[in-house]
Amino acid sequence: MKKVTIDDIAEAAGVSIKTVSRVFNHEPNVREITRDKVLAAAKDMRYRPNVAARGLASNKSFVIIHFHDNPNSDYLERVHQGIHKCCRAAGYFAVMEPFQTPGPDCTLSYAEQAKDYLVEFPIDGVILSPPLCDNVDLISVLREHNIPYVRLSPAHNPASSSCTYVDDQAAAHMMTEHLIAQGHCKIAFISGPENHGSSVARRTGFLAALTDAGLNTEACPILHGDFSSRSGFKECETLLKSSSYVTAIFAANDDMAVGVMMAALKAGLDIPGELAIAGYDGSRVGNIVWPPLTTIRQPVHGLAERAAELLLAHIRTPGLEFTQEKLPVQLLVRGTSTP
After folding, report:
1. pLDDT category, 56, cuts 50, 70, 90?
2. Residue 28 phi/psi, 5° resolution?
3. Long-range contacts of range 135-139, CB-CB < 8 Å, 24 or more positions apart?
4. 266 lies in which domain range?
5. Strands 149-152 and 163-165
6. For the chain, how many structural domains are there in total?
7. Are residues 185 and 250 in the same domain?
8. In this structure, is residue 335 part of a structural domain?
9. 196 with 291, same domain?
10. 238 within domain boundaries
11. DSSP conformational letter for 322
């Protein structure tokens, strides 16, 4: 069977080869009716662009990379799905690249890891998720290499780049208000890593809600996890063995909240009768556990997809003005906070 070429598409659509190329490269200034004719012809003929040939002709890799350092597999899967959906429609590859947290097990900084990657692999743009999206040195490396980037949920200086985000502080405030409305005045909070701006913002929202309600913040302990269910279990177990008494625990993500549930059940506590529990993210695990987890659902897929759309716009139009887009969250009240 003869391989379909852009010459065949041009002939079928009644346009020039150059016009077909501009449509496949998503270049501007192509009339919508013309673009539709070309795409329809390509679909009818089952044409698949040769990415390698496109790269040679345009000096592009057609690769978008997502740099991340996050242990939450559910979050990463939803991020990748959002990026992939946008990139596939635009003829780009979406690649996930994990970075290691600098420390005893990794002597390289985030910036050094980025330099090593950029030397080895050609890419057209980068999406940065927490905590990498707030790392100044890493961002400086991307700027030095003239790599367009968009940040996902930055905690600092959102106007310094295009980004998509939710208001973590306001969302945590809303969740804390819900727990207070259920009659809880002694609530513990389990934060995530300090280098994750979202964790800090959620803790800030929690404390602000306590203050706004006139509650004693010293009766509401702050515990420190790492976004893993193991850390949620450990912190809850330690709290239950201490002299501190709480009737509710708000964890900064769903994985830690599930760990809290496991520790509470191990201790023989009734959920939510003796201990109410809340999480944050709206991940699938919150639907699997029993009782179902009360949580804040953030639109991770939508945040990632929109971030990819903004990045592609910057790739196609260098010098484009930065855009910051906030998406709404949803409070999901379920069985771990109400009978």
Report:
1. very low
2. -75, 180
3. 135/110, 135/111, 137/109, 137/110, 137/111, 138/67, 138/109, 138/110, 138/111, 138/114
4. 168-297
5. parallel
6. 3
7. yes
8. no
9. yes
10. yes
11. P
The region, left, alpha or beta by phi > 0 then psi within -120 to 50, assigned to residue 62 is left
Name every residue whose Cβ is closer than 8 Å to that of residue 151 and which is 6 or more positions away in sequence.
127, 128, 129, 133, 134, 158, 161, 162, 163, 307
Give the model confidence (pLDDT) of 101-119 as tens digits: 898 888 899 999 999 999 8
Specify the amino acid at residue 332: L
Q: What is residue 266's predicted lDDT score, i.e. its pLDDT?
A: 96
Q: Report the CATH number that the domain containing residue 10 is assigned in CATH.
A: 1.10.260.40
Do 222 and 156 belong to one domain? no
Rounded-to-integer distance, Cα 191 and Cα 101, Å: 18
Together in a domain, 293 and 307:
no
Helices and strands in the chain, H and E counts: 13, 12
**Any domain includes 70:** yes
Which residue in 245, 175, 236, 259 sits closest to 210, CA to CA? Answer: 175
Q: What is the three-class DSSP state of 95?
A: strand
- Tokens 């259920």: give the residue: 182
Q: List pLDDT tens digits, range 70-108.
A: 877 888 999 999 999 999 888 888 999 999 989 888 889
Residue with tokens 């803790």: 203
- Statement to judge: residues 78 and 159 lie in one domain: yes
